[in-house]
Structure formats: C-alpha cells, structure tokens
Amino acid sequence: MSLALQDAGMTDDIGTRLKLVRQIFGLTQRELARRAGVTNGAISLIEQNRVSPSISSLKKILDGIPLSLADFFTLNFSPSDDVFFTADELPKITHQPEISWRLVGRKTKGRALGMLQEVYQPGADTGDTMLRHEGEECGIVVSGSITVTVGVQEKTLNPGDAYYFKSDIPHRFRNLGDEPCVLISANSPPTF
C-alpha cells in the first residue's frame, strides 16, 4: 500500500510519535533501521517530519520494534498526574490499629494491579476467618517476620522471603514476632 499517512488523515506528528516509541523501547535510530531493513537516514527524516512514510513503510519500521500500527497510533504519551506518589498520598485502607495497609494508585482508572505496603504490629492477625478473593497474590518481606497460612500450608517468612499463591485459597497473615513486620504485596485483579 503506497497511500501516504498524511493523505489518510493520520499525521498527528508521526515523527515525534516514532521517536518517542523508539526511545521507550530503548532503540537507537541505527538499531531500529537495522531491525526494519531501512536506512538510518530514513528513520531520521521521518522523526524530523521531513518525510511522511507510506502506511506500508511505517508498518515495516514498526515491525522492527515490534509494534502494531494500531498500538502505534493509540499509545497515550500524555503524562498522567498519577504516576508518582509520596508516602502521605498512600491511603490507609484498614481499620485495625495493629494492621496498616497502604494502597498505591488508588485513584488510577482501570487498575489491573493492587499494590500495598503492609505493616503488621507484633500480635497482629488478619483474623480467624481466612481471607479469600479472586486472583493471585504475592509479596516480599522487607523487615520483621510474618507467618502466612495458605490452605493447609504455613510458613514464617523473614526479610527477603516471599510468597505467591492463588487468592481463592483461604489465607491468613499473623505477626508472631516481637517487632513490626513490613511487607510489599501485589494482587491481580486488584481487591481494593
């Protein structure tokens, strides 16, 4: 297809978009040109918006990333206000004084992941009724120790130790130690 993208009404600064995509994927102009089987000069001219590539030429270049035409034109490069969070922007989502769960990105639309900083004071326990929800869950202990029960399995984890399980299996967290336990956890899909 030799139809120029400009004629197709898709000229939302293709050069800048190509440069951003190339940089996001960590490619130099030379590397992308090599992968796509085009000259380095061709990539440079497109990125400077001095040449408008045909759809087939752009597809050939994007195959070197690899990235589809649809993804190329729909990637959102607008900075989001919800990328970085200070410690005081992580809302506490528990009501138990001995357990603190602080959620990352609570207001992020369409979240596919829930990430928490969890702190369990000595003697803290998620309760006699085991937790159970859809998805998968994992975490790593940063400091202190935590006893994790998953189904019939139980283990005390120390700094650097981790867990990963399907969350529909009944589970429980207890700090049987003498110091607070801090862990970072993630679940998908997000529970909170």
UniProtKB/TrEMBL annotation:
CDD domains listed in its UniProt record: cupin_XRE_C, HTH_XRE
UniProt KW DNA-binding keyword: yes
Keyword check for Signal: no
Cellular compartments per GO CC: cytosol
Keywords assigned: DNA-binding
MF terms in GO: DNA binding; DNA-binding transcription factor activity
Domain HTH cro/C1-type: 18-72
SMART domains assigned to the protein according to its UniProt record, in alphabetical order: HTH_XRE (SM00530)
Protein name (record): Transcriptional regulator XRE
